[in-house]
Please model this.
Amino acid sequence: MKKPEYWQESIDYLSNIDAKLGELINKYSQSTLTTRGDALETLMRSIVGQQISVKAAASVWKKIIDLLDEIKPDNVLLVGFENLRSCGLSKQKTQYIMNIAEHFKSHNINDDSYWHDREFSNICDELITIKGIGPWTAEMFGMFYLLEGDIFPLKDLGIIRAINQLYCVDGIPLKIDQVIAISDRWKPYRTVASWYLWRSIDNEAVLY
Model:
């Protein structure tokens, strides 16, 4: 596991410019954003984790690991759709994972050097050509694999819920422009702010 090189700089900066966020940073100071260092695993975990709890996603992922033994495109394609679906995935999620494995195989993506020295926008453009990968999944890839420092997943329901818990007044939900205005203060470390927001609503640290 590797944490971002900018981690300490980012939490110092965010703590100084946002007292409420600083309280979260202090509360969860013992844990950090980390990467698993495997592109395919991050994408697959992002698909698995969509719209289900962290606990449920962990249960499904364990079954996938038991089935595949090792996360490789060939292994995914070899076990096939039905076996993969039997791990607790919906038809859609199963097909999305198969699509990702096909992309890795057809583009001969065998190691992490494929993603190095490329702009995130360029990588994002490639990823969203894979059926099943939308902007949110690409953002998770940017945050948890590439360790991009300034990604804010605006359409993530957990992020919106956490921001409302921290910043709304008198129980009145924030409007989207208010959410954006708050997040703009966190530039260029919106990834780190987002990670702490997730941490505030989950029993376990988010890691794709």
Observations:
- The chain has two domains: 7-34+151-201, 39-144.
- The chain is about 60% helix and 0% strand.
- The CA atoms of residues 99 and 204 lie 29 Å apart.
